[in-house]
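Notes, p. 3: input format for complexes.
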Amino acid sequence: MNTYSFSPGRSLAVQLDEQDELGVYRKEFYVNPSTIYMDGNSLGLLSKRAELAVLESLQDWREHAIDGWTAGQHPWYTLSERLGALVAPLVGAEPDQVIVTGSTTVNLHQLVATFYQPEGKRTKIVADELNFPSDIYALQSQLRIHGFSPEENLIRVASRDGRFLDEEDIIAAMTDEVAMVVLPTILYRSGQILDMERLTAEAHARDILIGFDGCHSVGAIPHAFDKWDVDFAYWCNYKHLNGGPGAVGGLYVNRKYFGKLPGLAGWFGSDKMKQFDMEHQMTPAETAGAYQIGTPHVLSAAPLLGSLSIFAEVGIERIRRKSLLLTTYFMDLIAHELDGFGFTIGNPTDEKRRGGHVSLEHPEAARICKALKENKVIPDFRAPNMIRLAPVALYSSFTDVWEVVQRLKAIMAEKQYEKFENQRNVVA
Ligand SMILES: *Cc1c(COP(=O)(O)O)cnc(C)c1O
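Output follows (428 residues plus pyridoxal-5'-phosphate):
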């Protein structure tokens, strides 16, 4: 897989599949043979190991009832910590710095409630105008809780071209009125990777805390949160980590804050040995576990036991290597086959800046997506003009990518999209 010399024929795709050392993992997933799934960055596919882990957890409930907290195959009392330890290598952290809990949005609320401590004129939070709406809503509401107006205190760094953020612009927004910066690791639309190491160093040089939303990067690219000294991070586990719809999310907290009282406290943030003392004075865990709130959602965490065992076996470096080859091949095919149909590549082409998906822009994107679905390709659409296509290293093949481009070419050449309305569906 190290050498790559592009040619447009199907034979190259077949050859790349034959050389693919991760190809064996495809059969671990429920890949529908009649469709080509390109939406694993919104909801990853079910694996057989994840399914088995859920069944085992049900069995634990059936056989042990209340004793399932400490007995059975996957004792629930320490499940969140155990899963955190499994995610830790994927984000570049020690096991006790990661906990599987909450959801992306809830974890952001928790982390802002814990770490946003406005003082004097340092009241502002820096975010960006391209971030996912839920993150922005959470930040706005946290500012309101503190009695600040989001209009004045939430700085959304502008994008120069509507696709990408420039680190220079973010750094310029880090003034002495800023208390905290919250940014995505990878932008959900364009797939741009931000330079987290540099941004963290620049924030810290100005006494500003910085946290990252890892929804689009955890399970797709390697991270070094600990080495980069990132203050906190949070993410969902249902995209690249294949934890299932609404799977319990994750968070990372830098070791230097261990012992800091959680902004949103609850008994599951307690030191595990003290939790059942039932005292009204909380003793928070001396780990990232302190930022849990209530009883874990065991059945929504269980699939991760199976899913993460695949990541532990394969390693994120190999996943990233294949993912880059898949997206390189994708872009080469698009350039060769779709020239003249009005598409623009809306993701960074540089490997250091490119996440796990390809973003194709087109004025007719909404109805091209509908035509793709009719042609048994599952993309996703992001208003107003973006088709996101995510070939996933663990279960997508190079022939999948080749097929998608052929079907897209036919849709464009035959104008098949014209029979659909150019409007998104309720869930896009
Ligand atoms: C998917 C995603 C979310 C979703 O948040 P939930 O709380 O899991 O609904 C939030 N932010 C970003 C950047 C995302 O990509």
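The chain has a mean pLDDT of 97.
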